[in-house]
């Protein structure tokens, strides 16, 4: 790439501004070009002092601390040994443990790399992390969504469909098999990200042999990328949201009907003592007449 002199009256380009700045700061352009390129690299890629970068970094830091501490405490509580009388909660606890593990993967693996790439725009983590970090993040989110769906099914079966047989149906073996299927399905859906995310190099300023690395998705065709994103949107957002809404509606409707039945039974239970009193009174009334008649006759 060759640089050409700017036309008279035209605004100066990035290369000309950089040359003038280096000449005014000590003639780095005519001296050591490596030092000038290093300063240019910091000027273009390092955003640690930007207000937006500072705000996002603080938010990521708070999210990291809260997410890490909260999920560790959740795992500690959920993995604690329980008494035998609450063993029926083992299915729900296993699903919640899986959900906490998914969140920890995002917090511990993806968030530090995201913050680092936010501060320094060039990708310095190599091709391996360029492929694995987006894959891990996508798999964790997918497993979280599918785990929430399984939890909804568990709650519906335990509350609405067959509460008495829920403990025997959701055995530990079935729950572990379901969790394995969730991870395999999530990995299969997100597998293309390993092959399409690549470390690439692009030029910065025309006329300078300065390139920097980025991590991005490179698809053979743009339509394939659009189709895959549409598949992810439907499989990991639309369908789970619709399914959970239906399950929630059925559960609320069943609980609402049970609430009405409970009110009727409560009203009936409250009226039973009065009905019993009337029945006893009707039985005792002839006896009272006999007693009063007998007393009057004896007089």
Automatic annotation (TrEMBL):
Gene Ontology CC, one term: plasma membrane
Bilayer disposition of the protein: Multi-pass membrane protein
Main location: membrane
Swiss-Prot/TrEMBL keywords: G-protein coupled receptor, Membrane, Receptor, Transducer, Transmembrane, Transmembrane helix
Compartment list: Membrane
Matching Pfam families: 7tm_1
InterPro entries hit by this protein: GPCR_Rhodpsn, GPCR_Rhodpsn_7TM
Highest taxon of source: Eukaryota
Family classification: Belongs to the G-protein coupled receptor 1 family.
Protein name: G-protein coupled receptors family 1 profile domain-containing protein
Organism this protein belongs to: Bubo bubo
Lineage: Eukaryota, Metazoa, Chordata, Craniata, Vertebrata
């Amino acid at each position: 790439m060759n640089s050409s002199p700017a036309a008279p009256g035209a605004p100066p380009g990035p290369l000309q501004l950089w040359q003038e700045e280096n000449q005014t700061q000590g003639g780095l352009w005519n001296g050591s070009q490596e030092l000038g390129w290093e300063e240019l690299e910091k000027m273009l890629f390092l955003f640690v002092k930007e207000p937006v970068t500072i705000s996002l970094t603080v938010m990521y830091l708070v999210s990291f601390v809260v997410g890490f501490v909260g999920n560790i405490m959740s795992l500690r509580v959920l993995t604690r040994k329980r008494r035998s009388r609450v063993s029926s909660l083992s299915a729900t606890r296993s699903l919640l443990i899986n959900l906490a593990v998914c969140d920890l993967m995002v917090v511990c693996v993806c968030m530090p790399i995201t913050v680092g790439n936010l501060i320094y725009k060039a990708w310095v983590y190599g091709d391996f992390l360029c492929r694995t970090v987006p894959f891990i993040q996508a798999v964790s989110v997918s497993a979280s969504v599918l785990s929430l769906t399984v939890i909804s099914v568990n709650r519906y079966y335990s509350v609405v469909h067959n509460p008495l047989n829920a403990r025997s149906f959701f055995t530990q073996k079935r729950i572990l098999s379901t969790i394995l299927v969730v991870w395999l399905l999530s990995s299969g859906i997100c597998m293309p990200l390993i092959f399409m995310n690549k470390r690439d190099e692009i030029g910065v300023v025309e006329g300078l042999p300065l390139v920097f690395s980025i991590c991005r998705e490179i698809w053979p065709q743009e339509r394939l990328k659009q189709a895959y994103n549409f598949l992810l949107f439907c499989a990991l957002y639309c369908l789970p949201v619709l399914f959970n809404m239906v399950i929630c509606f059925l559960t609320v409707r069943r609980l609402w009907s049970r609430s009405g039945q409970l009110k009727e039974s409560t009203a009936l239970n409250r009226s039973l003592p009065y009905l019993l009193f009337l029945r006893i009174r009707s039985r005792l009334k002839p006896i009272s007449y006999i007693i009063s008649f007998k007393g009057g006759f004896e007089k």
